[in-house]
Amino acid sequence: MTEATRRIGLSLGADICWPIAYTEIMRTLDLAIPYDGETVRFDIERLSIEPFDLEEHVPHDVVIDRLTHWFNPRREWIKKAILLDDVYVFNNPWSVQSMEKLTTYCAMIRLGLPIPRTWLIPPKEYDEWSHDLHATLRQYGRYFDLGAIGDKLGYPLFMKPYDGGGWRAVSKVDDEEQLREAYEESGTAVMHLQEAILPFDRFVRCIGLGPQTRTVLYDIEAPLHDRYTDERDFLTDDDAALIRDMTLVINAFFAWDFNSCELIHREGAWMPIDYANPCPDSQVTSLHYHFPWVILANIRWSVFAATRRRKQQPMGWRRYFAVVDDEMTLRERLDALLPIVHRRFETEAFEEFCATHLAHLDEVATAWFGSDVARDAVRQKVTALFPEHEVERFTDLFFGRIQTWREREGARA
Ligand SMILES: Nc1ncnc2c1ncn2[C@@H]1O[C@H](COP(=O)(O)OP(=O)(O)OP(=O)(O)O)[C@@H](O)[C@H]1O
Ligand SMILES: [Mg+2]
After folding, report:
1. What angle is formed at CA 289 by the lines to CA 287 and CA 290, rounded to 5 degrees?
2. Cα separation values, 141 from 137, 188, 315, Å
């Protein structure tokens, strides 16, 4: 059989730990996958940032991207790579660029997911009073009664940017006075007002990577390094399936291979509240116990995509809209949508591929996560984020949690 090399590009920013884990485990695996008459090998490369000719071709098959949502030169390079060379990138850069919280709420309202009631309000201030802005607001801007919107939604409610992220400018508002104050302070930001799902009894984050998901019980009050808890048995099978399937529908709908969906449980129902998080947190300092899962899921999905030279697909939203109707329960809707989702993610082929070609991954990764190189990778990340006198303690803490993962979930030696 002839040999072929698939090239996987890592588009990185401040990432430290995960690219080391990804690259080292791939190196140890030393994959040689028989596919379509060839023996496929893999080359991993960190992409550099430099000027590029729009007509220049790139040799990559897959790019794993961490920059598109904030670093425009990379995003535009990626668009070129998709258009000229059919490179498969996760996530789809056009989708990352344009799908904000508001779009995701509207789409899931249309599909019948239980989304908290939400309003958008025009900004309190504008940066520059251009001639056009004057003319526009003078003719079409309407005075509105903020208090009346607050009454409609009820208190408490949340005021947060329609395109938020990183808990920026999020405030809980308990009455009309606070609502008016929060609006005064919101400046030029375009804000959502959203019904608060409070008090709630559980908060989860469901991480999706291709067709793979992992739901984590999340403690919003804990310090950052303790928010992802390591509890595993906190869901009934039905609830676990509901959360998994809502996340898969969202991720497939928006062409987000890697995304994280936040859901709140109140009065027996799970409500997605924030799921426009493509390119979610991948740091060992927040994921710790769950970090190996993300690395393994990433390896599986990228190797599958690279081997088969997966291509970007059109969004095809009509197909989703066509299979749901008003009479359906949430479970029925998800069941109607899942065939589209699994076709998009090629779930069956993916699972067969993993069973055939990546059966040894768990064992290799479990060994690697116990190594000195793994510990050093954790230490490098901790050193970048923590004051010097805390480096030892937090390296021990995070590496220790990874060891707990090895004992509980890693491959048995
Ligand atoms: N409707 C809501 N009901 C209850 N809590 C909410 C609601 N909206 C936001 N919150 C709380 O505020 C936090 C931040 O809100 P949200 O996730 O929408 O913003 P964000 O900027 O995307 O934050 P992050 O980057 O941490 O996900 C949530 O994690 C949750 O604790
Ligand atoms: Mg959030």
Report:
1. 60
2. 4, 15, 34
**Ligand 1: residue whose CA is nearest its atom 23:** 167
Q: Which helix (H) or strand (E) holds 366?
A: helix 361-368
Residue 398 near residue 288, CB atoms below 8 Å: yes
pTM above 0.85, yes or no: yes
Domain residue limits, the chain: 2-97, 117-195, 202-409
pLDDT tens for residues 143-191? 999 999 999 999 999 999 998 778 888 999 999 999 999 999 999 999 9
What is the average per-residue pLDDT within 386-396?
Answer: 97
Output the CATH code of domain 117-195. Answer: 3.30.1490.20
What average pLDDT score do residues 25-50 get?
A: 97
pLDDT at 53 exceeding the cut of 90: yes
Query: Residue 160 is encoded by which pair of tokens?
Result: 């947060």
Would you say 150 and 119 are in contact if contact means Cβ atoms under 8 Å apart? no
Q: State how far the alpha carbon of 18 is from the alpha carbons of 81, 297, 358, 376, in Å.
A: 24, 12, 19, 12
Q: How far apart are CA 217 and CA 239, in angstroms?
A: 13
Assign domain 2-97 to its CATH architecture: 3-Layer(aba) Sandwich (3.40)
Question: Which of 262, 376, 323 lies closest to 20, judged by CA?
Answer: 376
Residues 6+ apart with CB under 8 A from 63: 8, 9, 10, 11, 47, 78, 81, 87, 88, 89, 90
Q: Is residue 158 in contact with ligand 1, taking CB distance under 6 Å?
A: yes
How many angstroms separate the CA atoms of 27 and 63, rounded? 17
Q: Do domains 2-97 and 117-195 have the same CATH topology?
A: no
Q: What is the pLDDT of residue 413?
A: 57
Task: Name the residue with the closest Cα to ligand 1, atom 30.
Answer: 220
Nearest ligand for residue 200 CA: 1
Distance (Å, whole) CA 10 – CA 24: 13
The pair of three-digit structure tokens given for residue 301, joined into one six-digit string: 């999905």
How far apart are the CA of 273 and the centre of ligand 2, in A? 7
Helix (H, G, I), strand (E, B) or coil at 316: coil
278 lines ligand 1 (CB under 6 A): no
**CA distance linking residue 244 with residue 239, whole number of Å:** 8
Q: What Å distances lie between residue 407 and 182, 204, 229, CA to CA?
A: 48, 23, 16
Q: How far is the CA of 321 from the centre of ligand 2 (A)?
A: 26
Q: Listing from the earlier edge strand, what are the strands of the sheet with 212-217?
A: 212-217, 202-209, 258-266, 269-274
